[in-house]
Amino acid sequence: TTGNNDDEPLTVVIQSGLTAVHRKSDELLMGIARAPYIHGLSAWINDNYLEYSLIAQTPCTGFYLPASTACELIQEAHVWQEAFCWLSWLNHLLGKRDIQLIGNNSYSQIRAMLLNMAEWDDALRSKIGVMNHIQRSTRISRSVVAEVLAALRQGNYINMSRGKLVSINRLPTDY
């Protein structure tokens, strides 16, 4: 995420709402972030930081500031431990995502995405379409995602309403 000066990375603080986090290079959906959320906290460290775009999924409030300013404020307030914990948590989430998606077949990726979505609260699940979310997060073709979801619904493994995940009864390990 960059500011008016395209070379200046930003730290974005989302105080309320939901945002979709997309990698700019290929528009891959990396995840859904629920406030409070801080994005770009480590952008000042590396000249080759990855750029992301945040797209509001609900009305949001927040602010942004240059990442270097965020670093200075963290230093002044002596909250490096808290910043480290936050970045460690984000690293954990990215590692979990990699384990679930990289090197796995299409069904395993779809299954992992469904299990992640099942962990969301009902309000979030009611806002996010299953097929679109899985396709945008994995780049698996819409036809394959649709085929797998139809088979899982028909086998009563998942319950969906209007394209939204209602519940998971049990997901087979293999398809």
Automatic annotation (TrEMBL):
Stored Gene3D superfamilies: Jelly Rolls
Q: Which Pfam families match?
A: HTH_46
Question: Do you know which SUPFAM superfamilies this protein is assigned to?
Answer: cAMP-binding domain-like
Residue ranges of domain IprA winged helix-turn-helix in the record: 106-172
Question: InterPro entries, alphabetically?
Answer: cNMP-bd_dom_sf, HTH_46, RmlC-like_jellyroll
- Please state what the protein is called: Helix-turn-helix domain-containing protein
Organism field: Enterobacter cloacae
